[in-house]
Amino acid sequence: QVQLIESGGGVVQAGGSLKLSCRASGRTFNNLAMAWFRQAPGKEREFVAVINWSGSTTFYSDSVKGRFTISRADAKNTVFLQMNSLRVEDTAVYFCAVDVTSAYSELRLTSSGYDTWGQGTQVTVSS
Question: With b meaning 16 or more CB within 10 Å and e meaning fewer, what string describes 18-41?
Answer without folding.
Answer: bebbbbbeeeebeebbbbbbbeee
